[in-house]
Amino acid sequence: MPDLNGMMLFAAVVRAKGFSQAAREIGMPKSTISRKVAQLEEQLGVRLLQRDTRNLSLTQVGALFFQHCSSISDEIEAAKATVENTHNDVSGLLRIAIPVSFSQELIATLCSGFLRLYPNIELDVQFTDSDVGLVGEGYDIAIKYGPLQSSDLVARLLFERQPILVASPGYLKIHGTPATPQDLAEHSGILLGTSRSAPIWPLGKGARKTMVNFQRKVRVNSAVMVKQLVMDDFGIAMLSNSVCKNELASGSLVPILQEWPMEAFKVYGVYSSRRQLATNISVFLDFFHKRFTNQESLQSMMM
Question: Which residues form a coiled coil (predicted)?
Fold first, then answer.
């Protein structure tokens, strides 16, 4: 039987996307984690991770095994939740508003896992980019991109993503590579945003931060469509590094103006202060924060 502790450490390495980060998050020596994962691989008789001096990725069997490890983790949390909520069962309707640009497949996976843990919850999930009023429209939680305007709402940071500018080699061959932020004014841009979003990108950080204009070619609220249009040579786009990691690795997309690193954008779970922190809201935000990172780790490390 595989060592349960080794399985949990393996899952932690996948979620952290590396042994060093996992060691920092767990508070355990990197050498110990590496040894435990190696012992697990020896027990199973398979290679779960491909390692070299710079990269770490999941093998095909490693990706499948990680899903089972995550399921076991879910069961452990479900057992804990059963004990913790004996006198306060988590139940009722939970209405959630989520931006259209989120991966609907990923959200579906997260909701399935959440409903398995909390079977007495009823979910009402709506994908919308409207600025929903939580109280007036009856939503319990809205997932929102920051920065947020101050209000009587409470915001919990769920995760951060690093934005980068990308283009296809084909586009750059025809139109040239911008050397300065100001050069973007002569280039076509694929804008990820709503009908109110202006063709402006924030480049740089702190005192070096500057707002630059570009020639908007397409504006759409789907990151998948933006990435495809960029790969089809229609312009430059700003996307998160996690969205286009595989394309950058393969060379089908190229990073632009890397000497102008941008501030990470933040995603929050927002709820009304009038509701305080109801149990069903709390458990959903906890689950979303952890599982969103898990699922993205699996996708980004798949070979």
Answer: none
